[in-house]
Amino acid sequence: MFPHHREREQPIFSSRAHVFQIDPATKRNWIPASKHAVTVSFFYDANRNVYRIISVGGTKAIINCSVTPSMTFTKTSQKFGQWADSRANTVYGLGFATEQQLHQFSEKFKEVKDAARLAREKSQDKELANTALSIAAPQDLSDELQSPPVMCVNGPEDKLFRSQSADITLSSEKERIKKMLSEGSICEMNLDTELFTLQDSNTKLVAALHEANANVEQWKKQLAAYQEETDRLREQLAEIEAHGGHGPSDLLKDELTQSLEELEALLKAKDEEIHILQNKKVEYHDMEHDRDEAIHRLRETEMRNAEMERRIQNTEQTLSNSLEERDRMESEIQRAIEILDIKIFDLNDLRQSLVKLIDK
């Protein structure tokens, strides 16, 4: 009844933007849907062959839009774009930090829209083929699916009612588990988006750290050379001061002092760059810690989903056993009715025989 394994929706592209929705009253003004920039992601569902745009703020879905071939993403300024969702009867607007981010989102929107168009064409071809096959199918299936009449026979009747009551209870339990599984899927989708964002940030940060580490050795050599040059200039300056020269030596002293100040300023700037790189390294370790936590939460969610699927399977098995038990009880009831009919017929014959005997 439910698949034993569900393939999750996979994020294929993510970007950060401020989300807006059109004012339903005026259809002109924009209403902010998020207080700050949030992650807006394209997801692909391989089972249903559907593309969606999803943005989650905390535990609330800000955008949950299925991409259709009729949608169009329009750039209204250098950093703002919008598209209309007819199913939700609204218009979404995205404000990006840079023009490049807007361009990347627009190109991905076109790509996903083309993919959705191809998916719809394939789905329509498949529906046409299924329709052609269904014409030749038996038309009396509905009669087979109708509920059998309730037999009013004392004894097995109570078991039949208990079976029907158990059927209703199991159906409600199955719907409850189904709802829990859906909530788990939303949480899992949120974690997928967070993990995808962390991985993207981690990749960029690792590239920056590799580049910085490649330059650290060169900067150290330059610092050592600058320090040697500074020491040499200081020695020359000390010698000049010791000689107490005047005239041209004063000019040389000024030049050496200026060069010394420039070198000290350069040394200070390099020290600040090294300090910045060290801070980035700490941020990189923090990002790795956040990524590990997201992976851990994702695995816990997958385990909970697996447990829910197992419970659904057990519920389906119990429901199947209950239906078999009900069918068996109906067979017993039918057999009892047949036996009662035979007994009634025999009693009727006996009554007629007794009447004839009394008449004689």
TrEMBL record:
Xref: InterPro entries: Homer (IPR045027), Homer_EVH1 (IPR044100), PH-like_dom_sf (IPR011993), WH1/EVH1_dom (IPR000697)
Ranges where the WH1 domain occurs: 4-116
Entry keyword Transcription: no
Coiled-coil positions: 202-339
Xref: Pfam families: WH1 (PF00568)
Gene Ontology cellular-component terms listed: cytoplasm; postsynaptic density
Keyword field: Coiled coil, Cytoplasm, Synapse
UniProt keyword Cytoplasm present: yes
SUPFAM superfamilies in the cross-refs: PH domain-like, Tropomyosin
Locations listed in the record: Cytoplasm; Postsynaptic density
Similarity comment: family membership: Belongs to the Homer family.
Name the record gives this protein: WH1 domain-containing protein
Biological source species: Pagothenia borchgrevinki (Bald rockcod)
